[in-house]
Each structure stands twice: as structure tokens, then as C-alpha cells.
Amino acid sequence: MTDFFAGIPQIRYEGEGSSNEFAFRHYNPDEVILGKRMEEHLRFAVAWWHSFAWPGGDPFGGQTFDRPWFGDTLELAKLKADVAFEMFDILGAPFFCFHDADIRPEGATFAESKRNLEEIVDYIGTKMEGSKTKLLWGTANLFSHRRFMAGAATNPDPDVFAWSAATVKGCMDATMKLGGANYVLWGGREGYETLLNTDLTREAENAGRFLQMVVDYKHKIGFQGTILIEPKPQEPSKHQYDYDVATVYGFLKRFGLEKEVKLNIEQGHAILAGHSFEHELALAASLGILGSIDMNRNDYQSGWDTDQFPHNHPEMALAYYEILRAGGFTTGGTNFDAKIRRQSLDPEDLVLAHVGGMDTCARALKAAARLHEDGSLEKARAARYAGWETPEAKAMLASSLEEIEARVLAEAINPEPRSGRQERLENLWNRFV
Amino acid sequence: MTDFFAGIPQIRYEGEGSSNEFAFRHYNPDEVILGKRMEEHLRFAVAWWHSFAWPGGDPFGGQTFDRPWFGDTLELAKLKADVAFEMFDILGAPFFCFHDADIRPEGATFAESKRNLEEIVDYIGTKMEGSKTKLLWGTANLFSHRRFMAGAATNPDPDVFAWSAATVKGCMDATMKLGGANYVLWGGREGYETLLNTDLTREAENAGRFLQMVVDYKHKIGFQGTILIEPKPQEPSKHQYDYDVATVYGFLKRFGLEKEVKLNIEQGHAILAGHSFEHELALAASLGILGSIDMNRNDYQSGWDTDQFPHNHPEMALAYYEILRAGGFTTGGTNFDAKIRRQSLDPEDLVLAHVGGMDTCARALKAAARLHEDGSLEKARAARYAGWETPEAKAMLASSLEEIEARVLAEAINPEPRSGRQERLENLWNRFV
Amino acid sequence: MTDFFAGIPQIRYEGEGSSNEFAFRHYNPDEVILGKRMEEHLRFAVAWWHSFAWPGGDPFGGQTFDRPWFGDTLELAKLKADVAFEMFDILGAPFFCFHDADIRPEGATFAESKRNLEEIVDYIGTKMEGSKTKLLWGTANLFSHRRFMAGAATNPDPDVFAWSAATVKGCMDATMKLGGANYVLWGGREGYETLLNTDLTREAENAGRFLQMVVDYKHKIGFQGTILIEPKPQEPSKHQYDYDVATVYGFLKRFGLEKEVKLNIEQGHAILAGHSFEHELALAASLGILGSIDMNRNDYQSGWDTDQFPHNHPEMALAYYEILRAGGFTTGGTNFDAKIRRQSLDPEDLVLAHVGGMDTCARALKAAARLHEDGSLEKARAARYAGWETPEAKAMLASSLEEIEARVLAEAINPEPRSGRQERLENLWNRFV
Amino acid sequence: MTDFFAGIPQIRYEGEGSSNEFAFRHYNPDEVILGKRMEEHLRFAVAWWHSFAWPGGDPFGGQTFDRPWFGDTLELAKLKADVAFEMFDILGAPFFCFHDADIRPEGATFAESKRNLEEIVDYIGTKMEGSKTKLLWGTANLFSHRRFMAGAATNPDPDVFAWSAATVKGCMDATMKLGGANYVLWGGREGYETLLNTDLTREAENAGRFLQMVVDYKHKIGFQGTILIEPKPQEPSKHQYDYDVATVYGFLKRFGLEKEVKLNIEQGHAILAGHSFEHELALAASLGILGSIDMNRNDYQSGWDTDQFPHNHPEMALAYYEILRAGGFTTGGTNFDAKIRRQSLDPEDLVLAHVGGMDTCARALKAAARLHEDGSLEKARAARYAGWETPEAKAMLASSLEEIEARVLAEAINPEPRSGRQERLENLWNRFV
Ligand SMILES: [Co+2]
Ligand SMILES: [Co+2]
Ligand SMILES: [Co+2]
Ligand SMILES: [Co+2]
Ligand SMILES: [Co+2]
Ligand SMILES: [Co+2]
Ligand SMILES: [Co+2]
Ligand SMILES: [Co+2]
Questions:
Q1: Considering only CA atoms, which of A427, B196, A431, B193 is closest in space to residue C352?
Q2: CB atoms within 10 A of CB D325
Q3: What topology does CATH give the domain D12-374?
Q4: Is B159 annotated as a binding residue?
Q5: pLDDT tens across A38-84, in order?
Q6: What distance in Å separates the CA atoms of residue D254 and residue C253, rounded to the nearest whole number?
Q7: CA–CA separation, B144 and C62 (whole Å)
Q8: How would you class C4 by CB atoms within 10 Å of its CB: exposed for 0-12, middle for 13-18, buried for 19 or more?
Q9: Helices (DSSP H) in C200-312: which residue ranges?
Q10: Where do the annotations place Mg(2+) 2 binding (chains A, B, C, D) (predicted)?
Q11: How big is chain A by its Cα radius of gyration, in Å?
């Protein structure tokens, strides 16, 4: 037991009336909603990187956090894991997520990094035995080290592809060993800085081949989790190939992988791509590739990825409504790929940021569930499209331009528009949030 | 001969030294570049809508232009056509483009609109006999009338789908009759205002079916041109389904139409979607769906579609370089989907805006061609990826994660990054523009 | 009594439990909050232009609304006024706002427009006698007619300045006659399309002189209301001079008018300028120029002014918190410069959009008032700056760089950063919304 | 002589025909333009921070550059200075710029940092004696160290204000000692992350007082250079107080400093604030506060500060045209606050990035000068506003709303709009670039 969180109590549900900062006001893991415990609906995960490995730097300044586990040794990496599991326990977090680079010290060679990873994975495995917290997903950091500066699977240098492939293998092995529910790929530097030096066709083909190898390896080792791609349009690269849900869908179709791979969708990345979060979720659900979410927002006035904890529950309710419409999470969950602000120096800040994020999500889920149960919104949607359920409409869809023109002329069709009722539906929505 | 352009001479090439406002300084249609006449490279088209049908309104104000042909009669529509062909002649424009709504008065019924269109198409056909100007593409306006307020192919009302299908048939017939080189679909209101009332799955399926009917009809009537979709991310709708090149590619793959349909890519729409124009062109070329371009820019400081004439030749050179790399236009061309500013009231403004646009494009093409001929940029690009041409790299691509890991360990692979040379390539570029 | 709103009942407060679409769930005008009736806090106003004069057009399509009062006669203008007051009554709206162009038909000459305005103002005055609804503000439309295409006070043509000055005089007279609480200037086309043809210095000086004349006339006629400028960064112009709060403050200082003029701040315009709404409010309050608000939001994914009714109460609570901190409205109020979507065709849509907007604001106000009453946020803010209340800090502020350096050296000052506690404050906030 | 730039020749002007990468094609320092040598017009400066102190990190990755001088000792700081002057010599750079943190190692205390700075300033002074390169401006880095995480002059902790004031004194002393032509303040973290913990009024007042102290100290020590503020709207902070030119103007007016302080305007920051660069320059000139420029662009598709070397000469020509209109630089100049891309690893990249930037600026200046000399644009501008030069217009400006209304009625004024001729002016522009 470290003393990092000394004095911070375990967080329990006390209800909306509580004014205790160290309590949940909305997240009540055992409360049953639409027939399922809240914990099973939300499947919260803490992100190792932002919570335990990020020093607080930004492009204009360095480290602000002093953490006793900062440094590059296996011993410090274990201390970091100790503290992480203490926080998981404080929060009652059902899941965590990690990159290799978050949990192990970088070695001088690939072999050394691999050994370091294996040792830490064993250590984490032992800790998990004494904890209720499971692994939502693992992933490989293929963007921080300078070797990845021009990409990983899409690097002009085949040796970087090789390094990356070998790294992903190790991270998939680690994820499987720790019982992970998913394996995620975020293409941090799979993109370009300038078209002038870039071969788009080759890079896409290499990325497609890389992903196929990942899928093959999953089947080979019998990993039962889901392979997930996390879209992001830009940053760090000027243009990133996994731009948004629609782009990744096209990529998966191009390489015949749309049945094998789903998406991990982040609110902040949706915003950067010019979409609302609920759009990306609804689209992925509609395309059959909705997997998991990173529930961290961007600031609407900043043009970069601020990765903040969610705090606006009506917005988040729109997201959970789409997830409920899609049937809820299967292997996926709600990861906080969120960092506390670099001025939030205290251990309390780290804990309470998660408390606020979990509460906001729980409140949003409950609102979404109420509306889902009520059914009015879906009834209104169905009514709007009811004309398409007629035999005439179905026949038209099976016909041709000429046949349709003949009917328009013969029947003197002249459609009169009907109200879209947007404000009334927004009012309906606001009855539930 | 109307007197609208009275006093405006035919525009001829006078070279860079000329200070005559009414002359081309760069566009010399007969100059041979990379083995082809400049006119055949660029294939300029004038857009009927912005040049002859737009009254100068914006969301905060109404008509600014007084044009003698404004009004809703067939007679005025013919006067408009007369003026249009006079301008084509003044500019030596090889092509024009139109929507049905630009050229014919709206009728009270579908049948009347159809008759009006047929009469005007005959009139334009006769004018084309005495003109060198051909039709680059035709299209249907499925967004201005209130019946389309909730979409055309994606409307909740099947009767609007019917009206739209019948309209497209008529416009395809007109395009074929006038010898059009392409037929374009821009999904102006194929999208949504709010997810709350929208059925994404049904709307996408109806859009897919609609496009299939268009392709079927093309083959049925033996239209030899290309079917083109024009992507745009938003405006007028909050979200438009044909968001960008990558999105439309995914849509085409989803419905098995990626061999049948290509893209008409607009600079302004690329910008709105968060991309550079050259990105969209390079991506479309890489995916085999580059068709034609709308060479009108948006203002970088405005968040809506300003549809301005191009005026920055180094930027445009990046675009033409991608087109040259892709082998140049086949059926496509350079359309100006550009409107003069609503304060540009005079006939001279309309003519000179086109002169400036054509000159900017010609200057850009010449710069791009010089660099293309020089070959240095392509040599640098090939060198950057040369490692992928080795047998070892090819073997790696055909192998698996495990085999690659074994090799990384065995050979102690440890890649050292190499400079991406972005600034040097930008300098190289600047030698040619 | 027209039949436009036939069947729509008067809207009454029924409380959160109500599922009646035609009821307020949060807005209870007589409920006392922080010692003042809710109606007096919020001072809601209906905007004549969007609600009664806008036909539903956008840059890609025309009229969608069929209103019996559309047309250019005095008779129709009176019918429009009748309907407007019927809606004010249905909503129990305490205020309305208008432009001259919303309420009177445009005449062929200035004199005729003036007579039309006077006749309609008399008509409205009579209606107000039988109504509880008052005038929050009047304003002049100096942007829709083509004469204003290059600006009003900043037009290159002195005759347009003259027309604009005369028009504002008439609108100020009308506002005074109708007992308006404020007079607003929004510089719709006071800006430029291109710097190439613009004389920034002259245009600013003319704008300053124009505003001085407005202030002089206010004093001359004894108008007791507040003169307000409404900032907006762009649209319709590429650049608008009244960009944001900070810009207008500089303009007022430049012309010595910062004591005479305050601001009417719109959420949508704040967003367009890259600010949060609460930023603009807090800044205006800090500068002593907070006057009134236009509580209509923009869509975060659209780059233009969507003027939607507010629907996210936690966001609006941030706004009302700043207003409460500033002491609440004096002459200002909450105007809905909001338009229903162009697909919202029905009279119910128009009424219910206002109901939803009013309810969202009331809910936000109540949350803000609870936090204000609680005081925790202000206590935390004061604690953060407590160091500045010490005599040493005050002495330092009165000293010089050299004296400070001497002290830093002498006392070996070495400041240790303290947590900014952002997430904890966001959690605190969320306890109240 | 270090060997860092071994093999890189001194860069000389060879003219447009040259294909030598290591030559200027446009920058010819001695060429006379509008009566002044090109070098004196442009006054190029190399930025110490990006060129010699930046390790290549970004928010998703660490150091990419290996530089022999990286490290925290005085010896390495001197090596860095040696290399810097070697590059100044290679480029023939007339100026450089620095922050304290770029040139000296950070000490454990203020006193130690001060001593380090003094030692390095002496060292640089000695190097300057043997060099033609002068100091364009010095500045203090008040944003990178964690002590500044909540601001410098606007920090809630008075001790940070003290540290900052003492630091600025030292940097002003250093700048004066090295003969600097200006002293710059960029408010890196003068702003906020969240309004919830921020006291806008107090922070502004402290910032105003801080600036007054800087001005007082300037006069006290007899510094003849200009005090410059560099505006930026955001990044690193969510909101930065020195948002843009208009905002800083208002701030200066508020504290009575508009005659004492001018602006250093950066293209990238203009873009982030929603303005074109030329807008910010023209506005500053119009307000009498145009001082100097940072000629580094942002990427139009990225929402953060990319600080790239300029490469689009027509855009830059718009900037230099405004500078020429304003009479050219006096103490100011053209600083490259630009960093090579993090993939540009080689010494050649660093040199050639500057060569490209200088050439782009020179080409732009020459184009702007040709248009300036030609005079057509200014003639067109004057003609557009000619009406304001009449006695009637001047009398109107001196009159009142009532007098104007009387005249509008009496003379039946009815202004007819005239073309703004935007496209024709853009064509004119394009004749010169
Ligand atoms: Co992110
Ligand atoms: Co993420
Ligand atoms: Co467009
Ligand atoms: Co277009
Ligand atoms: Co607005
Ligand atoms: Co407004
Ligand atoms: Co910058
Ligand atoms: Co700068």
C-alpha cells in the first residue's frame, strides 16, 4: 500500500442529495437499468497513460506533475502499477486500458523492451488476481518514440513496419494473457505531414496488410476479444488515415475486413473531424462496426485534442442513447482517454476527475434509458418514415427510373412537405435529461 | 445578339507582359504542354447557375443583380441562354455545365417542368450547333424547391424519391441529348438537420438504391459519359452523407458501385471537410475514382461555402500536379462552380472573374507540368520508399506477425529515422511555381 | 383573433412532472429566485424577424413556410402584428424586439418607408395597450436591401451613410414611442469582403462618428433606454468590425463612448468568434459593458450562424451565472434571436420552439441561482487569489521592476505551483445543474 | 568553428535561373527596391528557440533531433551559440531573436539563472562583435517552467508575478546590452484554462500594471527600442488575453499605453484568431501600432500553431503590401518564429528551411513593391471613397441624425449601389505576384 492516495476514501454512491466531494451522486453500480446493472452497461475503464504516465507537458511547457514513480526502471514501473490498482480500488473501476509504453520501461533493444513488458505483465496479472478490475483493452504505443516519427505500419522504412508488427504481436499476447476484452489500434502517426513526400497508395496497402496480419494472429492465438480501430482525423499528423468512422469503414471494405474489425470512437476525435459524437456512434452502429468508446471530450473552442473528462450530461446522453439503440456494449465499454489539466497537481484531482466523469456518464445513461423505455422518440421516427413501409414504396425501390417517371406523370405526383418537428423532438429529449 | 456584354471584346491570349484587363496572360489554349493542348488539359467549364441564375442573395440580404433575363418564362430562359452563349464565346470556353432549374422555368406540375426542360434543351442544342462550346456535365437541382427540404433520394416521403428519380431521368436524357461528357449528382440535402428524426440506415439504403438506378439507366440508354458524385460535408444540411472522398468511397464499396461512379471534387468542399484540395484529389486518384473538379475556392476564414474564383496559383498548382500524376482528365474537366461576389454588379465583373480564374488555372497547370517534366519530386518520393522494393520487404508483407517478430529478434532490427525533408521539397516546389 | 394558432392553448407552468407538450416545465414567471420574480430575471423577448418575417430560405433553397401574412402591403403587415401578439399572449412573453423591415412594408422611397413605419408603429402601439408584452428593443435593418451591400455607416457612398442615419433616427423614434428598454445596432455589413478595396481607417472613423450621432440623438430626445451594439465576427461579411466583445470595447474606447454604449451578446456569435458564450459575458461584465443577450445557439459543427433555440441547460447555466454575478439585467433581457428550422412548418413548431427555449433558460437560471446562493464557487475563486490581498502584494503592484528584482533576490523567492482544481470545480458545478 | 554545418556553403544570390538548392533565387540583400536595400526592407531574424533549442517533440512524441549542444550546462549553451552564429553567417542573416531560456541553462534559483544569463549574454556579445548579425529582439520565456503554469503577470500567486517581473527586467537589460531593436512580450499563459477559477478583472489589472512597469523601466534605462506585444488567441491556454490586434488595442487603450507599445504580429496567430494575416497587419497599421512580424504560417487544416516556414509567396505579398503601405518597418523586422518539421532531422534541413523562407519573403516583397509602385490599387481604392472628399459629405459627418434625415427627405436621396470589383482587383493583384 503506497501513500499516494493517503486520506482519500473509497468512493461510494450517496445519491443526488450528497454534497460529499468523495462520493458518487449518480453512479450506482448495482442499480438495475433496462434489466442490466449500471456497471455492466457502462463498463468504465481507467486509462493508464493519462492517469499514471503523463507528466503534464504541453507544446509550450514541460512536466508539472511530481509523481514518485516517474523514471525508467522496472521497480518504478511496479510502483506505478501499485498506485494504479489503488486508484482502481478507490473508484471501484471495473476495467483499465494500457499501452505497452505506459506500463514498462523502454529497453535499449526490442528484445529488452519485450522482456520488460513480459515482466510487468506478469506483475499486473498478479495484481489483478487480488482485484475486481479487469482489462478492457490493450494497445501498442507506435507513435511516441522517434523511430515512429514517419508512421508505423505506413512508414517508408520496412524495418519500422517490422518493429511495429513485432510490437503489436507482443501487445496482443499481453492483452490475451491479462484476459483483455478487446485489442485497440490507434494510428497515431499513420498519416502524413506533407503530401509532397507521401505515397498514399503504398501506405494504404501496407496498412491494410498490417491489419490483416493482426486479424490472422488474433485467430491463430484464439483471442476472443474484438479488434478495434480508433479513428482520429489529425494530430499529431497533419492528416491521419483513420479520419473518422466513414473513412475507416471504407478502409475495412477495401481490404475485406469489415466483419473482423470494429471501432473505438472518441468524442474528442469526432469533434476534430467535424462531427458530433452521437453522429459517429449512430453511423458506426448503422454500419455494424460500433465497438467501444473513449468518453473524453474536446473543448469546442480549441482545435486540438484536449482529452478532458466529460462534464455535460445532456450531451453524453445523446451518446448513450445511440449505444442503447444499438443494443449496448458487448465487449466494448466506456474508457476515459482523459487527462486531468496540467494544473491539477494533486492526487485528489486525479481521483475526483474520474468521479466526475463516471457520475456524468451515469447520469447520462439514466436519462437515455428513460427515453429509450418511454419509446416516444422511436415512435416519432418510425412515423416519419412510415410511407416506406407501403407495398407501393417497396415496389418503387425495386423498379427503375423510367418506371418511376411513368408513375409520377400518370399519377401527377406532387409531394407536399411535412414538418420535421426538430424543436418538438428537442423538447421531448429535454423532458428526459 | 443581346447587348448585355456590349463593349466587351473577345478575350485573347496576350502573354504575361500584357496589362490589358480583357486578355489572357497565361491561358493560351493552343500551347502544347506535355504533348497536349492546354485547352484539352484544362477543359474549362462555365457554370450556368452561378453565372446566369444567381440573383446575388445571401442569408442576410436579397437580390443585388439586375439581369434582363430574370423571371419565370420560357422567353426569358431563352434570353438567358443567348447571353450565356455570348459569354462562352467571349471567353472561348470549351464547356458549360447546368442544372435543370438553371435553364428552364419551374412548371406547376412535373409534366410542365419536363416540357419546359425539353423545349429549352432543344433551344440550347440549336445554339450549340453554332458554337464550339460543349457540355461538360448536366445535373438535377434536387435541393432548392421546398419539396426537397428533407432530402431527395433520402427523403422520408417516398413521393419525393419518386419525383427525384423522375427528375434525374429527365436530366440524364437532356445531358445525353446535348452530348454531355459526364452526369453529376450533388446530394445537396441528402443528409440531416438532426439525428433525432433521422433513420440513417434506411436513408443510406435508399440512396444506394437510387444510385444503382442511375447507373442502370445510364447503361440502358447507352450514355458514354461518367457518373460523378460531388462530395460536400455540410451546408445546407448540418451533415451531408457524401462528406468527402473517403466517405463516398466507402458508400460506393458498400453498394458495389466503385467501378461505376467517380467523383467531382470541389476545392471549397474539401476545405469544409477539413482537407486540402490536393489531399482529396490524391486520395481519389489513389482509389481510382478521380473524375472531374470544381475549381472554386472557399475563404479560409469563413465556415461556409463561398464559391469564389481561384486566385492563388501555387495552391492550384498542387491540384493540377495531382491531376497530371493521375494521367490528366479523361471525361472530366475544370468547372468553375464559382460565383462573383454579390457586390460585383457589372457585366465586366462576370467576364473578368472567369478570365482571372482561367488564367490562374493555366498558370498553375504550367507550373505543375514543369515539375512533372522535371521529375525531381517523383524521384525523391521513390527514393523515400525504396526499401519496400527489396525482396526482403516483399517477403515480410507476405508473412505474419510471428515471423516478423522472430526476424526482429534474430536480426536485432533497430531502425534509425531518416529526414522527411519537407522544407527541401517545398523549396523544390517553389522553384517551379 | 386570427386562426393561425387555432387549437393551441395558452402555455402555463405545470412543473417538471408534466408530460404536456404545451406547458412549461421549468419556467414559472412568478416563482421568486434570489429575491426577484423569474420573469423579471429572464425578461424574455420574441424576435419579430425570425418568428414572423423569415420565409425559411437558406443559400441553397427558397421559401418553405406558407404564412397568410407574407406579402408587401400594410394590411398584411397588420395581420402579421395581430398574429405576433397572439403568440406573445400564448407564451406570456413579457417582451418583443423588431427591425423596421420586419414590421412595415418597404416603400419605393425613404419617405414612403418612413410613413409605413409610422403607421405600423401606431398600430403596434394600440395592440400593446391591450397586452402585457413590452418592447425590449428596436433596431434598424441596414443589411438586407441591396443599397446596403457595401455597408451602412461604413459604406463608400456617403448617400448610404445618409440613408442609414435617417433610418436609425426613425427607428429610435419608433422605439421611444413604443417604450423600448434599449436600442440595438448590429453591424450586419459593417465590415468588408476584401481588403483590396477597403479603407479601414476611414470606415472606422465614419462608424465612430455614426455612433456618436446615435448617442447624441438619444440624449436629445431623452430616450432612457440603453444603446447596445451586437458583436459578430463574420457573416454576412467576410470580416465584421464588431468582431467580439474585446473588439467593440476597443472601438468604444477609441471614440470615447465606453460609458454610453453597452453590448447585446449572442451565443452564436460568440462561438463564431472562437469564444464560449460565458467568456463573452464575463468579459463584458468585467469591462462594464454587459447589456443584454441573444440566447440563441449555433451548431458546434457548422461554421455559420444557425440561430437555433437553446436546448442545453448546463451550458446556458454558465451564461446565467455570469449574468447573476454581474448583478442581473437592468434594461437588458433574454432575446431569442432564434429561428425554427426551415423544415419546422407548423404553427405548433413556432410556439413549442419558444416553450423549449424558455424552459431551458429557466432551468439554467435556477441552477445558476442555486450555485450563486451556495457561494462555494466564489469562495474557491477568492481563495485562489487571496495572496493578492496582502499588503506585500499591494506594495509590489505599486513598485517597479528593479524593486521587485531586488526583493526576489533578497528573499530568494521561488514560487511553488498550486493545483488549479479545474475538475473539482466542474464537479461542484455539476452538483447544481 | 564547429562541424555541425560541415559541407554546407554560404548561401548567395544566384537568381531565379539557379537550380542550386544552396542558393537564394529571390533574396538579393543589396538589390534596391523602392529606394531601399532589400535587406533593410525585410530585416530577417533567425529565432534561437525553434532553430537551436527545440528537440522535436510534440504532444504525442518526444525528441527527434540529436544535437551535440543539447544539455543544461553553460558549456553546451556556448556551443549552441557558436553553432547559431555559424548559421547566421551561412545565411547572411541580419538579425536574430531570443528568449532567456533559449540561450542560458536554467539555474536552481533566480539568482543562478540570472548569473547564467549574464554570462551567456557576454559570450553572445563577444560573438556579435565578429559578426554582422544584430539583435532584432529579446524576450523572456514566462511559460515553459511549471511555475508559470497558471500565468506570469496574471498568476494568482503574487510570487510568480514577482519572479516574472524580475525576469523581464533581466531580459530587458540583456536586450539593451546586446543592442536589441525591440523588446517583445508574448503572453504564453496569460489567459485561462477555465473561467470557473478565474478572476478576469484582477488578472487584467495586474497585466496592465505589469506592462506599465515594463514601459517605465524602458524609459528609466533609456532603451531606444520598441516594446512589442505578440497577440495569440489560444494555445497553450484555452483563452489568451492578447487574443488579436483589436483585443490588444483595447487593452492598451484601457491602460493608456497605446502610444508606448506596438505589436509583433504572427501569421499563424492571425489564422488561429480567425483572421487573415493581412487583416491583422492592416488593422494594426490603421491603429498606429504595427511594429514587427513573425512570418511563420500555420497549416490551414490544423487547429494548432504549426509554426511553419512560409512557402506561398502570393499570400506573403499581401502581407508585405500592407507593410509597404504603412511605410515599412522602423525598428521591426521579419522574424521566423518557425520550426522545421520534427522529421527534418538534418543540418541541411535547418539551413534550407531558412533559405526557402527568406526567398519566399523576398519574392513577395518584390511583388508587393511592384504593385505599390504601379499605384493602380491605391487609385482604385481612392476612387471608391471619392464621395467622402466632397464638402457635402464632410458637412454631413459634422451634423446630426435629424439634419441628415431632413436632407434625405428633402433631396429624395436614393443611393444606387456600385460594383465592388473584387475579382477585377484580384486580377490586378495577380498581374504583380
Ligand atoms: Co484524443
Ligand atoms: Co482515444
Ligand atoms: Co460549393
Ligand atoms: Co461544386
Ligand atoms: Co446570429
Ligand atoms: Co443576434
Ligand atoms: Co506561433
Ligand atoms: Co511568434
A1: A427
A2: 18
A3: TIM Barrel (3.20.20)
A4: no
A5: 999 999 999 999 999 999 999 999 999 999 999 999 999 999 999 99
A6: 7
A7: 6
A8: middle
A9: 200-221, 245-254, 267-272, 277-287
A10: 266, 269, 305, 307
A11: 24
Q: Is D349 annotated as a binding residue?
A: no
* DSSP code string of A298-323: PPTT-BS---BPP--HHHHHHHHHHH
What DSSP letter does each residue of C250-265 carry, written as one string?
HHHHHTT-TTTEEEEE
In chain A, CATH 3.20.20.150 sits at: 12-363
Strand partners, D23: D12
- Cα D127 from Cα D122, distance rounded (Å): 9
pLDDT score, position A1: 85
User: Could you tell me where the beta strands, DSSP code E, fall in D116-272?
Assistant: 134-139, 182-186, 191-192, 226-230, 239-240, 261-266
Residue environment code for A266-282, b if the CB has 16+ CB neighbours within 10 A, otherwise e? bbbbbbbbbbbbbbbbb
DSSP string, A83-135: HHHHHHHHHT-SEEEEEHHHHSPPPSSHHHHHHHHHHHHHHHHHHHHT-S-EE
Query: What is the whole-number distance in angstroms between the Cα of residue B280 and the centre of ligand 4?
Result: 14
pLDDT digit string, tens, across residues A340-355: 999 999 999 999 999 9
Q: Which of A100, A154, A192, A196 to mutate to test the interface with B (most CBs of B within 10 A)?
A: A196
Q: Give the CA distances from residue B208 to residues B144, B256, B257, in Å, rounded to whole numbers and listed in that order.
A: 22, 9, 9
Which amino acid is located at B198 in the chain?
Answer: T
Tell me: cis bond preceding B236? Omega within 30 of 0 counts: yes
C26: CA distance to ligand 5 center in Å?
25
ipTM attached to this prediction: 0.98
Question: Å from C115 to nearest chain A CA?
Answer: 38
Question: What's phi and psi for A31, nearest 5 deg?
Answer: -65, 135
Q: If residue D32 lies in a helix (H) or strand (E), which one and from where to where? A: strand D32-33
pLDDT tens-place string over residues D183-211: 999 999 999 999 999 999 999 999 999 99
- Choose the mutation target among D64, D149, D300 for the interface with A, i.e. most A CBs under 10 Å: D149
Task: With CA atoms as reference, report the closest residue to D332 among D49, D137, D187.
Answer: D137
- Residues in chain D with CB shorter than 8 Å from the CB of C381 are 196-199
How many residues belong to chain A? Answer: 433
What size, in residues, is chain D? Answer: 433
Distance set, CA A85 to CA A47, A124, A130, A264, B377 (Å): 12, 9, 10, 24, 53
Q: Which residues of B touch D (CB under 8 A)?
A: 19, 21, 25, 64, 271, 274-276, 300-301, 309, 311-315, 340-341, 343-346, 348-349, 352-353, 355-356, 359-360, 417-424, 426-431
pLDDT of B54 strictly over 90: yes
User: Do B100 and B170 touch, CB atoms closer than 8 A?
Assistant: yes
Q: Is the pLDDT of residue B264 over 90?
A: yes
CA B242, CA C135: separation in Å to the nearest integer? 45
User: Cα(B161)–Cα(B213) distance, rounded to whole angstroms?
Assistant: 12
Report helix, strand or coil for A232: coil
Cα D197 to chain centroid, rounded: 31
Residues D70 and D55: their CA atoms lie apart, in Å, by: 8
> Do residues A121 and A178 touch, judged by C-beta distance below 8 A?
yes
Contact partners, residue A355, CB within 8 Å, separation at least 6: A11, A21, A22, A23, A24, A91, C427
Pairing verdict, β A32-33 and A36-37: antiparallel
CATH topology of domain C27-374: TIM Barrel (3.20.20)
Residues of chain B with CATH 3.20.20.150: 12-374
Cβ distance A424 to C21 less than 8 Å, yes or no, reads yes
Write out the three cell numbers for A5.
Answer: 492516495
Provide CATH code, domain A12-363: 3.20.20.150
